[in-house]
Design brief:
CATH architecture of one domain: 3-Layer(bba) Sandwich
Strand content: 25-35%
CATH superfamily of one domain: FAD/NAD(P)-binding domain
Radius of gyration: 21 Å
Largest sheet: 8 strands, mixed
Bound molecules: flavin-adenine dinucleotide
CATH class of one domain: Alpha Beta
Helix content: 25-40%
Distance between the termini: 36 Å
Shape: globular
């Protein structure tokens, strides 16, 4: 194997795998992953692409562009999930939230419609929504592990070299330059060092993209970057009865109906945790919370549970993308928080342009220490 690459992407989660399939179209790309059990992407099991997420359901940063990028990805890769483009339903928790939702539907008719309580009863009798519900018509839900597999296959078919069990340990000069030191040096090739089953492997590149998710804390240099890890858990349950036509639901948590008859319920937000393993008590909590909206889940049997660590950027709601100050050629691609399914396809589409013209990078994404 020739160990020289235009771009080396570290981390084959949603962010890295989406980026690799786009960048490999016109560059020699290595996509390397350590196979870390803390990673967020596989733990998400079934995730929602929800363009109207927050309490007030207002579209966040570049959400309109992001949902279009998600839909293009789904059309390109054609995942089998029936709900991938089905949109979702957000029952209002109070009459105040119902008013907010109705305003959102009026302001963004391309994203959502408002259903009164009567309409919900008539069109989706399987959900309890006494205050009505926001029918989000874009986005949907899908199985993340199978999406990841198809993203990685697609990246390889496009020409990316994909390597598993390759852990980035560091790069030339990684300890020698303090974060925050600006550098205008032209991009020189440098070495990135991976620990693999066959020992250390040195790769030569001009561009290292760090899409390591929660793995940032094991890279000495990244300890100064402002990132935070939030544990999340989902539980997969098998109800004894399930309605035939069922949308994904986002209310107190989310519920994603899977093609095999199970329902994946997510997710917890734990800022304080001892380890990243799932717990039965959290699974029971997630299920109990969802029963209010979906009473037919009351006696559902727990089939499996999974937990992982999301990465957020403290003090803002946008991901972190851009050059790592003081480390010419090294870029961050992280901080996707709870919006990986929407943000990863969008950031990947924009990344080639941003890499070529860093001046065009939106300020909201900047790397902060
Ligand atoms: C329980 C749960 C539920 C969620 N539900 C949703 C949802 O409904 N909708 C949604 O949009 N998002 C959801 N998310 C968030 C979503 O999963 C993340 O935003 C997304 O997975 C982040 O992707 P990533 O590629 O940045 O990081 P990750 O998926 O964490 O991937 C990082 C990768 O980097 C690798 N890595 C780390 N360090 C190294 C190293 N040194 N060398 C090589 N490789 C390395 C890891 O092995 C890993 O594969 C959920 C997350 C969790 C945990």
């Amino acid at each position: 194997m020739d160990l020289r690459f235009d771009t080396v992407i570290v981390g084959a989660g949603l962010a890295g795998a989406c980026a690799a399939r786009i960048l490999a179209r016109d560059r020699r790309v290595l996509l390397a992953d350590a196979g870390d059990h803390d990673a967020a992407s596989p733990a998400a099991v079934a995730a929602l692409a929800n363009p109207l997420m927050a309490q007030r359901a207002r579209p966040g940063w570049r959400v309109i562009e992001a949902v279009a990028a998600y839909e293009r990805l789904v059309r390109d890769l054609a995942p089998p999930d029936a709900t991938a483009l089905a949109g979702l339903l957000r029952p209002a928790a109070t009459s105040v939230q119902a008013e907010e939702f109705a305003q959102v539907a009026e302001a963004w008719p391309d994203l959502a419609a408002w259903w009164s309580a009567d309409e919900v009863r008539h069109r989706a009798g399987w959900i309890e929504a006494p205050h009505g519900a926001l029918r989000v018509t874009r986005g949907g839900a899908l199985s993340v592990p199978s999406l990841l597999e198809s993203l990685r296959r697609n990246a390889a078919a496009t020409g990316a070299e994909c390597r598993g069990s390759w852990r980035l340990e560091g790069w030339d000069g990684d300890g020698s330059t303090a974060l925050g030191t600006p550098s205008n040096r032209p991009l020189e090739p440098f070495e990135a060092v991976f620990r693999t089953d066959d020992g250390a492997v040195r790769v030569i590149t001009r561009r290292l993209v760090l899409a390591t998710g929660p793995g940032f804390d094991r890279l000495q240099t990244l300890r100064g970057v402002s990132l935070h890890r939030v544990k999340g858990q989902v539980v997969r349950v098998l109800p004894s009865w399930r309605p035939d036509a069922l949308f994904p639901v986002s209310g107190r948590g989310y519920a994603a109906p899977m093609d095999d008859g199970t329902v994946v319920i997510g997710s917890s937000y734990e800022h304080d945790f001892d380890d990243s393993a799932p717990t039965l008590i959290q699974s029971r909590r997630l299920l109990a919370r969802m029963v209010t909206a979906l009473p037919w889940l009351r006696d559902a049997a727990i089939v499996s549970e999974a937990a992982g660590l999301r990465v957020t950027v403290p003090g803002r709601r946008t991901p972190m993308v851009g050059p790592l100050p003081g480390h010419p050629g090294v870029w961050m691609l992280t901080g996707l928080g709870s919006k990986g399914l929407l943000m990863a396809p969008y950031l990947a589409e924009e990344l080639p342009g941003w890499l070529d013209r860093p001046d065009s990078l939106p300020h909201e994404l900047r790397v902060v220490g």
